[in-house]
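User: My advisor, Dr. K., asked me to get a structural model of this assembly before our group meeting. I'm new to this, so sorry if the format is off. These are the inputs:
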Amino acid sequence: MAANPAPASSPVRLEGVTKSYGSTTVLHGVDLALDPGELVCLLGPSGCGKTTALRCIAGLERVSGGRILLGDEDVTGVPVSRRDIGMVFQQYSLFPHLSVARNVEFGLRMRRVDRAERTRRVGELLEIVGLDHLAERFPHELSGGQQQRVALARALVTRPRALLLDEPLSALDAKVRVRLREQIRAIQTELGISTVFVTHDQEEALAISDRVAVMEAGRIAQLGTPEELYRRPVSPFVADFVGLSNRVSGVLDTHPDGAVVRVQGAAIPVIGGKPGAGLGSALGAGSGASGSAVTAYVRPEHVRLAPGTPVRAQPGPTTSTGIGAAGIAATVVSSGFLGSIRRTVVELSDGTTLASQHGADVAFQPGDAVDVSFAAEPVAVAPLG
Amino acid sequence: MSAGIPGRPSPAAARAVVAVIGIVFLIPLVAMLEFTLRNTAGGHDLSHWAALFDPDKARGYRVLAQGVQNSLLLAVISLGIVLVLFFPTIVLVHLRFPRLQRALDLLTVLPIAVPAIVLVVGFAPIYRVIGQTFGSGVWTLALAYGVLVLPFAYRAIAADLTGMDARVRAEAARSLGAGWVTVLVRVIAPGVRRGLLAASLVTIAIVLGEFTVSSLLNRVTLQTALLQISKSDPFVAVAVSLISLVAAFVLLLLVSATGGPPRRRSPGGAAEVRVAPPTTPRAAAPAPSQKEPGRGR
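Assistant: The format is fine. Below is the predicted structure of the whole assembly, which you can bring to the meeting.
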């Protein structure tokens, strides 16, 4: 698991949190600490434990082990109603019998805030989410996006210690989703509230997070900035889950200058392959031996295509590292226009298919002969199997 | 007339079905009304209805008044059992112990599956103990009525509860600082308002119409009193039966009318929260369109 140095007074901190349902353990000692005002996404496939982790922070699930701290207070045994957190749910969770304004003021009523203050704060929050003109409407009179903004205002009006968002955009249409996530980020930044955002949408996570915790089978596989996750994935799982990756079979070649994976003569540097960089963490256990067969995870934008000769049995010459100099003969299978970019799928002579992402102004036709080379970006590798 | 929707009956056919069903229900009611209007001379007048409210004849109808009074008391107590005991229990099982749901489903069918006479035979020894402990007041009959109304009340409430996403709303309320009682009263109950009203109506209808248990346990209720009165004055018995049927129908109409989404209060209404005008031009989110696209419910 990725280490996460905890700041002195992290607004949200999980220390070795485990959660089991009977004999099934869904969280295995999760450690996580947010910086003040930070937005951290819990990203992962279905069943990885991200929602369970969020519910544990909220107090909606009782942890089986470990501690949860909000600021300096250990809230592990504190019920959800006394944790002072704001939460937005995946489903529209507004109270249908209350107007927008009364939904938003619900938390203030529970805290017995006086009426004048309630009115002021409800107005302030509705203004922030841009719905002050709909204060007297009922939830069924609002669109899905508007309902989630009301839910956000309701969660924030009590000025909670942390904001927890459980896939708040997943029930919305694509365009609304993008617009609302930008609004959520703007509001979160403006209010400076520490936020945990659960999503299975990697684009969403990369777009709005300060840091992303990629979860795999109840553990945090990697915690880092979106760029770190994308450019330096610590494991094949992260490389495969965050962004698109080609899985390319090759042979690991380690030498004092670093490690590369050789793919039909071309050489691609390996993440952590430099001396002392901890190659083992990027590889499966026991797979770091030179000469072992591995799978390399190559990003489509790092697969370069150039018009080639129709038939060539052997790849072109390579440098000592082979970076960017190799040309592997391949044939275009398909090419799709995606707006600003184009994605082209090619097939190597051994039947391996690779996706390449390149500018939309370069077009290939199915059957075109191309030369494939790889950019000098390090890749994650895993034992072939 | 516009073309009907494929697979659905035309409006005319729908109206015809409603009319036939209405007639089937109305015929016995009209027959009852006609019966109560008959006089001894072979004509029709309001003499039997007038007799109901005649102070001179009140003594003869004392048992009927007692029966009505007892039945209303039992209806109120049974309603209390449904709202104060059953409703929180059903919510508790739904939210906290969903695994018990199937067991509860099965349990609540039993009062329907077991014949009333068998129930009474089972109740008899229990009521001996109850009589020794609490006396033989008519209110104790509400405990048996609670069992009788359970299947109907349970289904009316549980169906609404399943359809309202109760778990998420309860969690949302809890995360906002609400305790369980607040969640139950201010979040769940308004969401299952129709179910609660339906359960209440069914409870009242069952209690007002129940005869077997009260008769076999020797309690005076509306139905046992009606039987007693009918032996001496069948006209009054039928008139009171008609009143109780119409009252049940009106209750049903009221329940139907209280459904639907909440409506905005009129401008003159006393809405409790008025949003204060913006004090600072610091809206983080851009002003939206009146209703942006999305999957609103």
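One thing worth pointing out at the meeting: The two ends of chain A are 23 Å apart (CA to CA).

User: Perfect, thanks a lot.
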